[in-house]
Amino acid sequence: MRHGKKFNHLGRKKGHRDSLLMNLAQALIQHKRINTTLAKAKALRSFVEPILTKAKENTTHSRRIVFSDLQNKDSVKELFDVIAEKIMDRPGGYCRIIKTGFRQGDGAETAMIELVDFNTVLTAKTGSKAAGTRRGRRKSSGTSSAAPAAAGVAAAAVAAAVAPETESPADEVTSTNEEE
Q1: What does the H/E/C string look like for the chain?
Q2: Which residues belong to CATH 3.90.1030.10 in the chain?
Q3: To the nearest whole percent, how much of the chain has pLDDT over 70?
């Protein structure tokens, strides 16, 4: 029975599967982005993310633990010297999987797996935006968001105190009806 065995065996025996994941992890660390099948990409993500977490602590012990998983000095050096600096402030989620379609020969679903912090195109787009997420559904008025940036913290407190008084529940009802 296979109760509780949740990882994908990838149609291989244990030794072959370990070698496959080790080679894929080495390629991902060296090239920062690889193309493979979706099943292998998902298995690789669960294999490589704990390794990337261990690389954030640059000690002899963590280097030896990572080397036992990767078995490649160049990959370990690249991981601790280059990659660890970029992922230091990230709490997790170091890899991104993007589906790329189906393979011509056998119809297998393919995917690209990449290290999130090394996508220069995407980080250039999001880097220009303001940090943080918008939690509400409605946009705030342009004057209240521009005033705190220009006038400082005191203006932000005044704008926050004045903004709720100007809105009424009737305005919210009509604005939600207009959006629909």
Answers
A1: CCCCCCCCCCCCCHHHHHHHHHHHHHHHHHHCEEEEEHHHHHHHHHHHHHHHHHHCCCCHHHHHHHHHHHCCHHHHHHHHHHHHHHHCCCCCCCEEEEEEEECCCCCCEEEEEEEHHHCHHHHHHHHCCCCCCCCCCCCCCHHHHHHHHHHCHHHHHHHHHHHHHHCCHHHHHHHHHHHC
A2: 14-119
A3: 71
Q: Hey, what's the torsion of the CAs at 111, 116, 118, 124, to 10 degrees?
A: 110
CA neighbor of 25 nearest in space, from 4, 7, 43: 43
The stretch 73-90 carries a mean pLDDT of 95
CATH of 14-119, one of 3.50.50.60, 3.90.1030.10, 3.40.190.10, 3.40.50.1820: 3.90.1030.10
Chain segment 10-64, per-residue pLDDT in tens: 999 999 999 999 999 999 999 999 999 999 999 999 999 999 999 999 999 999 9
Burial class (CB in 10 A: 0-12, 13-18, 19+), 5: exposed
42 vs 113: CA distance, rounded Å: 9
Question: From CA 40, how far away is CA 110, in angstroms rounded?
Answer: 9
